[in-house]
Specification:
Layout lengths: L22 H11 L1 H24 L4 E5 H6 L9 E4 L5 E5 L2 E5 L4 E6 L3
Antiparallel strand pairs: 1-5, 2-3, 3-4, 4-5
Length: about 120
């Protein structure tokens, strides 16, 4: 029985359990199947990387105080974080990987770096 590639329709030559005629067709088929979910993941990861770069650039000394306006001017989006840590005293640190921030009074933020 002759099998045809589900991506391009060409005849499949090779192993009996082979599903695609080439790696390119297999990749194209799987990319098309996962396009929607991959798009949201890609967009979110890009945003997290950008937030991380912003915090890292502004926090050269491992502890820095900046204004909310400074963070926003650099394009920081507060909705994209990877974790939250609450201290015993109730202070809430938000993290983007190893770079974090703590909201202070008067729209100031303390930028910190978590040591592993």
């Amino acid at each position: 029985m002759e099998k045809h590639c589900p991506e391009c329709g060409d005849k499949i030559i090779g192993r009996a359990d082979k599903k695609f005629c080439s790696d390119a067709c297999r990749n194209a088929h799987n990319n098309a199947l996962n396009k929607d979910t991959k798009n949201i993941v890609r967009t979110t990861n890009n945003r997290l990387r950008k937030n991380h770069r912003i915090l890292e650039a502004l926090n050269a000394k491992e502890k820095t105080k900046v204004t909310k306006a400074t963070l926003l001017k650099h394009g920081f989006l507060f909705d994209y974080i990877t974790g939250i840590y609450t201290t015993k005293t109730g202070s809430v640190y938000h993290y983007v990987y190893d770079q974090g921030y703590l909201a202070l009074d008067n729209d100031f933020y303390l930028l910190v770096k978590k040591e592993f």
